[in-house]
Structures are given as C-alpha cells and as structure tokens.
Fold these 2 entries.
Entry 1:
Amino acid sequence: MVFASIEFLTLFLPVFLILYAFARPAWRNATLLYCSWVFYGWWSPAFLVMFMGLALGGWVGGLAIERAGDRPLRGWVLALFITANLSLLCWFKYSNILVETFQGIRIFAGFMPEDWQRVILPIGLSFIVLQSISYLIDVYRRTVPADHSFTSFGAYQSMFVHLIAGPIIRYEWVKRELNERPFDWSHFCIGARRFMVGFSMKVLVADTLAPVVDTVFALPHPSLFDAWTGCVFYGLQLFFDFAGYSAMAIGLGFMLGFRFPENFENPYVAKSIQDFWRRWHLSLSTWLRDYLYIPLGGNRHGNTRTYINLFLTMSIAGLWHGGDSWNYLIWGVAHGVALGVDRAWTRANLPDLPVILARIATLLFVFLAWTIFRAKSFDGALAMYAGQFALGAIDYSDAVLTQLRPVHWLAAAIGVACVVFPVYYPALARRVGQSWVTLGSFWPVFGFVLSFALIASRGAVPFLYFQF
C-alpha cells in the first residue's frame, strides 16, 4: 500500500483519521503506532515482526545506553546496537549483489554457479535503520534523553507518515510533539493542501514521465535524442517522485500535529555540487554530515584527510542507495570526487563561474551522474553515455516516439502548474486581484482530483525510493 493508491486514500487514511480524531490526546501515540503497524503489515505480515523488533531494539538500546552512565560500557552498548542494525541492513541490502559478484567470479574461473535464493529487501528498512542509529547516537551524546515510553518511541520509529521513503526524522525534532501536539482544523487544512500538492507531483509528473524513462533505459543502443530525453526525464521523474513523497509526508505530519523539516530546496538551481547537496534530500545529507562525515574527522585534520572523508562519505551514501548494482557505488564515488574538486577550486581562490554557467555545469554533472544511477547495469550505463555523446544514431527511435504523446505533456504541464501556481499565486493576487487568491486556494484540489482519477484508471505506481 502506497500513498498514491486507492486503498490508502479510500480505506486506510479515512479510517485512521477517524480513529485518530476521536482518540484522547493521551491515546494518539498508541493509535498512530498500531495503525502504522497495520500499514506496514498490509505490505508484508512476515516483515512486520522484524519491523516491530527494530522498534523494540531501538527503545531498549536507548535505555541501556542511558543506564550505562559514564562507564566505558556505554560505548560498547552503543556499538552493539549500531552493529545489530547495520548487520540487518547489510544482509537484506547487499547479500544479493555480493553473491552475484562471487558467482560471476566462479563462472569466469570455469566453475558452476551455486544455487541462491534472492533476498527480498523490506521497504523502508534503510530509512528505519538510519533513524534508529541517529536516536542511539543522540542518546549517547546526551543530545536527547532516552524515551522511557515504548508507545512514544514506537510511534516515532514506526510512523507510517514518513516510514517508507523519508524524510529521515530525528527524535530531537519531534520529541516535544510526541508528548503534546496540536490537532485542529487549521493544521489539518494546511497539511491536506501540502499532501495534495505532493500527490500531484507524484502522479501527474513523475508517473507520466516514467514510461518514457523505462523505454529509453531498456534500449540496447539509444540515440542521441533518446539518451538525453531519458536522462533529463529521469532527473525530473526522480525529483517529482521523491519530492512529491516528501511533500505528502510533511503534509500528513502537519495534519497530525507534527512539523517535519523540508527535504528539498530547489536542488536543480544549485550553483555548485556543494550547493546541490545543501538542497537535495536534506534529511539524508545532514544525517551523513552529522553522523558520518564529522565523526570521521570532517575538515579538522588537514586537507588530505578532508578529501578522504568527503570521498568515503559519498561512497557510503552511494552504497546506501542500493544493493542490486555497483552503479550506486560509482555514482557516490563520482559525487565524492566532484565535492573534492569543488572544494579544491574554492580553496585555490580560482575565479567563480558566472551564475548561469555555474548552474548549467552543476546540472550537467548531476544529470550525467543520474544516468549511471538509473541504469540497471554498468553496460547499460555505457550504452546511455554512448548515446549522450553522439557515438551512434541521432534521431528518436520508434520505441521512444510512441511514448511521447501529447496527453503525457498535458498531464505533466498540469502537474507542474499544481506545484508552481500555489507558490506564486499570492504575488499574482496582488497584481491581478482577489479572484486569483480563490483560484489558487482550489488549484491543489483540482490537481488532486485529476490525479485520483488517473490512479483509479491506471493503478498505483510505486515510489522510486521504495527500492532504496
């Protein structure tokens, strides 16, 4: 069950909101926790047990770290629970690719491959583990106190609102709201409006671009037009899909009385790769900074160590994104190198590029990196790069032309309008009149209704970050 599905919109969400609205304030965390378990169990009852165990383990780990006091045991307890979380993540996420790599070596050496049953990655596991680790480290650092209520901590850890694809919410951000939060009509309306905008981003734009992207990346030899269309469309699809999910999660949280931080800040207008990572997937980039880059030493131990830390941090970020291809590691390495070059350029006091050129150069690198991020294999990425650098045909292939239909462009244009118009309509209202205010207030509703009609006719499309 996903946010952009009939089951969620017509069954789960209405029932949950009714239960939540009629629950006493002291019971709302329990309502949120139990309904979140139902939400996850809807996808897989078997993995629900593991999911509940992760919540229990995080709660017990926080209490154990707190009770260890200042003894050396405190660090060992932290290491034990972090190791347990990472071991679970590594098994589900990386066992397949490690076995497949080993099988490839065996075949190359002339041996028969061993039988292997692929391991299924539970949805949301990567986000759950990072969230649990941040809580344990914060308790260890005494940034937050350990939560003595399992219901309260479980509601934080298991909250369906942002469970599947983020944002990665830190306990510190919501600890006060777990004890007391507003639940009123004004917050509900603001949150619902944000949810509808995110819903339009996902269904009208991301899902509309998806068939074109899938077609291009399935081509054995894409042309110049094919490759660049697939690359640009994937960059837009990924943004509108993930930013749309984040907007829906932030909206749902606001409806329930939680204030989640923004996860995107116009990343495609970044003027450098450093600027890009200050705008893209903020909950992950700040997590990597605070719980990986800075503990590694950050920029405190000289230039060489700083570049190594940047490289390691981004390489690990690439690995975190996927375990079914080494392409993710290559993507992370590319960004690590780019961050190093960006830093070296700045420290050498070289002249800054004009803003327009800086934005074009940054966007070009980001989109070229998205190519290997999206490709199913290294060979597939090479085929796309060959097309992008005009090493083959030029014109569109027939397969891609059949996907570029006017109705797709219309749906995408409406989706973009549903995102852009609510942002700018107050300025338009001051210039044109009050009627624009009224129209702007109802524009997300129009996008939501159209999106609902589309998923009712063609079915729900999973969010891209489910696989990460």
Entry 2:
Amino acid sequence: MCTVSFVKTAEKVIITSNRDESVIRLNAIHPKNYKVNNKNVIYPKDRKAGGTWYVVDDKGTVIVLLNGADEKHQVQPSYRKSRGLIVLDIIGSTSPKECWATIDLENIEPFTLVLYQEGDLYQLRWDGVIKQTLSLDVNQKHIWASATLYPKEIRTKRAALFHSFLDEKQLVTEAEMYQFHRYTEEDNPENGLVINRNNVMKTLSITQSIVQQNKVAIKHYDLINEKEFATSFVII
C-alpha cells in the first residue's frame, strides 16, 4: 500500500504494489476469491481490520490503496472506519468511480486510491476534508509512494528511478516490473523500494495484477515468509 506503479503495454496493463507495514501487524491472508455485494473479487485480506489494500474484480477493475494524501497528515486518536474497508465498499459498488463521488468519508484517515476501471485510470484522494479526482493518461507510466512514509524528495527520486528504468526497456513485462519493485536500491533499507527500518517497519509483500483482454491474473509475493501465490479471473 505504499509504492504503486502503473504500466500499459500493447497487450496488457501491469499494476504493482509494495506493502510497507509495521512488523507487529498480523500477516495478511494471501489473495483469495471473495464475494462483496454479490460481486466476485480477489484480494489479500488484512487480518486486523478485514479490509485490503489491493483488490481486483471479475470485470478487470483494480483498486490499490496508499496511506495518506499528498502530504503527511496528523494522525487522530481514532477513525470511524478502516481505509481498507472503504476499498471494499467501493469495489462492491456497481461503478467504483461513481461510488467515489458519493461515498461518505467523514472521519476517515487520509488516503490515495489508484483506480483502473473500464480502460481508464484515476487517482482518487481524500485529505481528510476534500475529495480529489484526477483522470490520468493510461498511455503514460505512473508511480506513487505514500506521503506518510516518504517525503517529497524521496517520492521525486523514486519517480526518476522508475522512468529511467523504463527508458531502458523496449518492451516491459510483469517480471521486470516485479524486479523493479523488489530490487531497486536494495542497499538502501531506509528508502529503497523494499525497506527495513530497524526491523520495525518493513516491506511485507508485493502484489501485482496483469489485466489483459479476457483475463486478469494476480500474483502475490510474501517477502517475510518467502512464499508466492497466483490466481486469475476470466473477465466477464
């Protein structure tokens, strides 16, 4: 939920996410099939709140959560609902984009969503007061990093590394995007793409979806237990 990239090739869309979390947080349940409002979805489940940071439905819609909006915020003692449960509320609607316009986010901690729906890409932000909706060019490459963990200069550096990496590739594959998310600046445990901040905050997993014309595949790499999971949907 803390670093997300979007890459579109001639045949597929690749969306990859690193989850950075406290090591005392319970291990997530690896991606499984669930029903949300009678919709077929796949997501890794957070054991603490029951929500998720990454979900895909059988229409090829993808939602990825990042903590925080554009700037680091002051955390309040409590909030009305987990952001991961908000993600499930949105994916369970008839149209996630339309749901975003009407969903009540009062007393919800700030967050950013990357939404890919029906061939369109959006950045959706809640800063604790105002919702922001930004339509993005799907033919461009995009990267995000959580403002709660990475200051602006680090996010800018990440973007430069991302675009430099892609500039060297004529054809980008999902395996190469995994390599970027797994090994970029691996000698920098504080701000590399896989972090280990004094064994307190770590990158726990990498989740990736590959959306094609009639199929969406989900790959999940548990970095702590060194396990891999894969599943897929036929797009209806």
